[in-house]
Write a structure and sequence with these properties.
Layout (H helix, E strand, L loop, with lengths): L1 H5 L5 H8 L3 H14 L20 H16 L6 H11 L6 H10 L27 E9 L5 E9 L5 E7 L4 H15 L4 E4 L18 H8 L3 E4 L9 H15 L8 H17 L12 H7 L15 E7 L5 E6 L2 E6 L8 E7 L2 E6 L5 E6 L6 E2 L37 H10 L15
Parallel strand pairs: 1-4, 4-5, 8-12
Antiparallel strand pairs: 1-2, 2-3, 6-9, 7-8, 9-10, 10-11
Helix pairs in contact: 2-3, 5-6
Length: 440
């Protein structure tokens, strides 16, 4: 438009009609060219000269300071968390988009264009506290590079950390005992959700060993057990995300734990902060997990699992002492069958605690019993049989003691009188050869 007027000599009205703009706009452009020259062709900022509602420099500085403080403490420092702190601690209402814009402008956000968008995930959440508990364990290195394991029980509805403990190694009995401690403190849940770790389930173990300690305890308390599909960690995403936050906080501590006890002390400190002080972005109104857990009534197991039995078939061989082993609820039990059947191949038909032991060759039922979980050895109930290689007992081998000479029965009988009294006292008729008498 400028060249049409200045170079071609066309009128401003003709140029305005040709380009479809107002004549006043063409007049301003021509005046700008005559005042500035070639600089008039450069695009200019559309930013207003004044912005009365713009965020103040003090607030921007506060946003950046909160970001650095939260990051140094190992806590979440995203726009939602910063907005919560501004609103509750500084009485400032700043939108999430505004905070994100200033963080990006100051180089405090690392772009992640390949990260999967959050909207692509199918979200689920329990409707009530104790409706579902998630559990998992993770690893953490101590100051001396020793590996420790951290076990977590988390409420799905409120994200309340029910139990967090450190162990040299998490085992099935430890998982069962910690679950029992949480049940004693908060009541039983309606269900649990875990991955397929062997401490939680043996469903992918090929049927070997039966139910483990946790599975047996869940069945006893009528708690429904749910497990994620293999290679799908997002199913247990709540406890996985909790562990990420926890480990970020642990790494940010100036004094790293040197022992399990030191690590447990830090975990207790983090759990208190996480449950009662730190706002949770996934909860309504950025509430704390403790507030969300206490706000609603607790769910309870809905159905009985008395008929939820676990059956399996085990092939084994009776050992030389007449015993066969069987693992029940994660504990190995020794079942007595009898030495008569030593080294016999058997088939064990197991229905929870009810067991039938059958000769694999003949189909003969060798024993049927109900396992007593409180005992390691399951006796046959029959008196022990005498070994045919043992010598026959004799008269003098009892507990008889001569009243006249105090000679014990085990030492032999030296006179006819002693022999007669021994036979009379023990109530036996024994024919003995004559014992010669010797002069004293």
């Amino acid at each position: 438009m400028i060249t049409a007027v200045i170079v071609e000599g066309r009128s401003q009205g003709e140029a305005a009609r040709a380009y479809g703009v107002s004549q006043g706009w063409v007049s301003r452009l021509v005046a700008r060219y005559r005042a500035e020259g070639e600089a008039a062709f450069e695009p200019r900022s559309r930013r207003p000269k004044t912005s009365p509602t713009a965020t103040s420099a003090t607030t921007v500085e506060l946003i950046i300071r909160l970001r650095k403080q939260l990051a140094e403490q190992g806590l979440d420092a995203g726009p939602d968390t910063i907005a919560w702190h501004l609103r509750h601690h500084h009485q400032l209402a700043v939108s999430r988009a505004t905070i994100s814009r200033y963080l990006t402008a100051n180089g405090l956000v690392t772009p992640q264009p390949k990260k999967r968008p959050r909207s692509s995930y199918v979200r689920f959440q329990a409707a009530l506290p104790n409706q579902t508990w998630q559990a998992d364990f993770t690893h953490y290195r101590l100051a001396d590079a020793t590996d420790a394991e951290i076990l977590t029980w988390l409420d799905d509805h409120s994200r309340y950390a029910l139990h967090v403990s450190a162990w040299p190694r998490v085992t099935g009995p430890i998982a069962r005992d910690t679950f029992g401690a949480v049940v004693a403190a908060h009541g039983p849940p309606a269900s649990t959700l875990t991955d397929n770790g062997m401490v939680f389930t043996t469903r992918l173990a090929g049927g070997k060993g039966g139910r483990n300690a946790v599975e047996a305890e869940l069945q006893r308390l009528h708690v429904a057990q749910k497990n994620a599909s293999p290679n799908h960690p997002t199913t247990c995403g709540k406890v996985e995300r909790f562990q990420q936050t926890m480990k970020n906080w642990l790494r940010a501590q100036p004094n790293q734990p040197a022992t399990i006890t030191d690590l447990q002390a830090l975990l207790d400190q983090f759990t208190a902060t996480y449950n009662h002080q730190r706002p949770h972005r996934s909860l309504p109104h950025r509430a704390t997990p403790a507030a969300a857990y206490d706000a609603l009534p607790k769910a309870l197991p809905a159905t009985s699992r008395d008929h939820d039995t676990h059956t399996r078939v085990r092939h084994d061989r009776i050992d030389s002492s007449g015993v066969v082993t069987l693992r029940v609820a994660g504990r190995l039990h020794h079942v007595g069958v009898g030495r008569t059947h030593a080294r016999t191949h058997v088939v064990m038909l197991v229905d929870d605690l009810h067991v039938r032991i059958v000769n694999a060759a003949t189909g003969e039922l060798l024993r049927e019993l109900t396992i007593d979980p409180s005992r390691d050895y399951q006796p046959t109930g029959r008196p022990p049989a005498r070994n045919p290689n043992d010598p026959e007992p004799n008269v003098g081998s009892g507990s008889f003691r001569c009243p006249e000479t105090s000679q014990g029965g085990g030492g032999g009988i030296r006179t006819r009188l002693h022999a007669a009294r021994a036979t009379e006292v023990m109530g036996r008729k024994v024919l003995r050869p004559a014992v010669p008498s010797y002069p004293s």
